[in-house]
Amino acid sequence: MVSTLSEPAAGGGLLPSTVKILIAGGFGAGKTTYVGAVSEIEPLTTEERLTEVGVGIDDTSGVDAKTTTTVAMDFGRITITSDLVLYLFGTPGQDRFSYLWDELALGAIGAVVLADTRRLADCFPSVDYFERHGTPFIVAVNCFDGAPVYDAEEVRMALDLDPQVPLVLCDARNRKSAKQGLISLVQHVIASEEPAPVG
């Protein structure tokens, strides 16, 4: 899924670089909404209705109005610049679908971890996963209506984030806000690949 700027285009320029990004986070954190808001194509979703079978398995406390869940992935695409196209893969949020994460993460350059202050602990598995695998990521606090409001440093401390991990506030429903999160991630990935200054 990752390519480089190496092939000349018909007009003499270079073909766009395409990169894979994961959108992760806990159940109900807004991953499907995020992909849908920012995608320039009709997003592919694998949303299924929550049923009685999931009672006792899917914890809906704090997200009581949620009626569907992602059972495989979400997919979208956005062109950031003329030479950078992002393919977005939204991960399922429940533990029972975590076996899909390794497949979805193959070839990804980084991830946006959506955090919901109503259920902040739900993003711990995503943060742990990307830290364990050395995948660059940012945390985007999805600002839900009526959710508890904390400043960025309080959230950073609660998640025990490394100081180098960017933390941004976002509204997953808003295209401009979601796009800014993706730009922050790309900047973080580029910065993390730069050699450390010799001192």
Defining key terms:
5 helices, globular, disordered N terminus, 199 residues, alpha/beta, two-stranded antiparallel sheet, single chain, six-stranded mixed beta sheet
Mean pLDDT: 81
Low-confidence stretches: 1-13
Strand order of the largest sheet: 4-5-1-6-7-8
General shape: globular
Number of helices: 5
Give the N-terminus to C-terminus distance in angstroms.
36 Å
Number of strand segments? 8
Strand content: 15-25%
Describe the structure.
The protein has 199 residues and is of the alpha/beta class. The relative contact order is 0.19. It is globular, with a radius of gyration of 17 Å. The strands form two sheets. Strands 4-5-1-6-7-8 form a six-stranded mixed sheet, with helices on both faces. A two-stranded antiparallel sheet has the order 2-3. Helix 1 (31-38) crosses helix 5 (175-193). The protein has helices spanning 31-38, 101-105, 124-133, 152-159, 175-193, and strands spanning 17-25, 47-49, 68-70, 74-81, 84-90, 108-115, 137-142, 167-170. The chain starts with 16 loop residues before the first strand and ends in a 6-residue tail after the last helix. 25% of the residues lie in helices and 24% in strands. It is built from five helices and eight strands.
What is the topological layout?
Layout: E1 17-25, H1 31-38, E2 47-49, E3 68-70, E4 74-81, E5 84-90, H2 101-105, E6 108-115, H3 124-133, E7 137-142, H4 152-159, E8 167-170, H5 175-193
Parallel strand pairs: 1-5, 1-6, 6-7, 7-8
Antiparallel strand pairs: 2-3, 4-5
Helix pairs in contact: 1-5
Task: Provide a quick synopsis of the model.
This protein has 199 residues and is α/β, with parallel strands linked by helices. The chain has helices spanning 31-38, 101-105, 124-133, 152-159, 175-193, and strands at residues 17-25, 47-49, 68-70, 74-81, 84-90, 108-115, 137-142, 167-170.
